[in-house]
Amino acid sequence: MKSSILLFVSFSIIIFTSCGSKGSDPVQEKTAAINVTLSAPAAPDGQHILISGQAEAIQKAVISTRMMGQITSLPVKMGDQVRKGQLLATISNNDIQARKAQAGAAIAEAEANVKSAQKDFDRYTALFSKQSASAKELDNVTLQYHAAQSRLEAALQMRNEANAMLAYTNLTAPFDGVITQKNADPGGMASPGQPLLVLEQDGLLQFSAYVSEADINKVKTGMKATAVVSAAGITVPCTVSAVNTSSVLTGGQYEIKLSVAKADQKGLRSGMYANISIPVTGVQSSTATDSQVLVPLSALVHNDQLTGLYTVSSNNTALLRWVRTGKTFGNNIEILSGLAADEQFIMQAEGKLYNGAAVNVRK
């Protein structure tokens, strides 16, 4: 009987234990791996010269004056559209007006003297022809007449000088454009050569860039190029329109200009920076070297002041690698440190990556 009871109790314990273990050790669900696509750093393209440039107005004027005086009027502000000949600023000119008045009085006096001297000259010329006046008397009258004419010419030039100086007290727009800078206000003092306003031709833009001395011989006017303006999210076709043949003042960098068709300027503004690619056939460009490591800008991860990209660890997990970047070449950026030239990185992911996330590399 006791053995039967012990057997029953043992059997019950086994059943209870079996059921209890089933509820206390559930199967842990594993997080699904994120599908990713790997890519290797891009090799620099030796068939292109890659440089940085800036959009600028084709025509630009710094409005200043040769006069020292108080600014009496400055009726424009930054962003105003102006027409050629429109008044932009006036400088006090009371002293010049006084000089002009003095010149006018001197002209009136000189003209009267010329008329009087001419009458004497005509009279003595007639007397000398009748042998009623000596040659010396005629010479004296002739000299007086010429002196009076010279004084009249001097007075006229004084008036011209006053008029020229007055022109610098009324500053007008040399062409149609837009005011991009205003460096003074009415009531302030203007000094000779001091920039008061900057006027840029509106709607006609070009790119200005600098090419190294190693590549300048490969660049010719008329060559086609492409400018990527990241700020505006646009790609602009352009053409090399001018090449500077001297780098004396630019430290071995040669300035070039690239024209842009008006139809291609939508979204482009003066001052925007661009990455410019100039195709050169059959030559090796020194702008991007074989030792450079280039990755797409879209692969980068930004965290405050840090920049990184994801690689894959030996355990098939995402590994965030902080890198130091260099120059931008089109849609690619140079990696100076943090990624080897033969090391792959995650180009695309079908989910949100984080450090240590399980990944599944797609072939």
Could you describe the 3D structure shown?
The protein has helices at residues 2-24, 94-129, 135-167; strands spanning 34-39, 48-57, 60-63, 69-73, 81-82, 87-91, 170-172, 177-182, 189-190, 197-200, 205-212, 224-229, 234-243, 253-259, 273-279, 294-296, 301-303, 306-312, 318-322, 324-329, 332-337, 345-349, 359-362. α2 (94-129) runs antiparallel to α3. It folds into 4 domains: 34-45 and 290-362, conserved putative lor/sdh protein from methanococcus maripaludis s2 fold (Beta Barrel); 49-58 and 204-279, Efflux pump adaptor protein, beta barrel domain (Elongation Factor Tu (Ef-tu), domain 3, Beta Barrel), CATH 2.40.30; 60-90 and 169-200, Beta Barrel (OB fold (Dihydrolipoamide Acetyltransferase, E2P)); 94-167, Helix Hairpins, CATH 1.10.287. It is 25% helix and 34% strand. The chain has 363 residues and is of the alpha+beta class. Mean pLDDT is 84; it is low at 1-29 and 283-289.
Backbone CA Rg: 42 Å
- Inertia-based shape: elongated
- Spell out the helices and strands N to C: HEEEEEEHHEEEEEEEEEEEEEEEEE
Unreliable sequence segments: 1-29, 283-289
Total domain modules: 4
The fold-level CATH name of the largest domain is Elongation Factor Tu (Ef-tu), domain 3
CATH architecture of the largest domain: Beta Barrel
CATH superfamily of the largest domain: Efflux pump adaptor protein, beta barrel domain
- Would you count the extended β strands for me? 23
Structural class, please? alpha+beta
CATH class of the largest domain: Mainly Beta
Give me the side-by-side strand order of the main sheet: 2-11-14-13-12-15
Tell me the span between the first and last alpha carbons.
Answer: 70 Å
Helix content: 25-40%
Largest sheet: 6 strands, antiparallel, barrel
Strand content: 25-35%
Per DSSP, the total helix count is 3
Mean pLDDT: 84
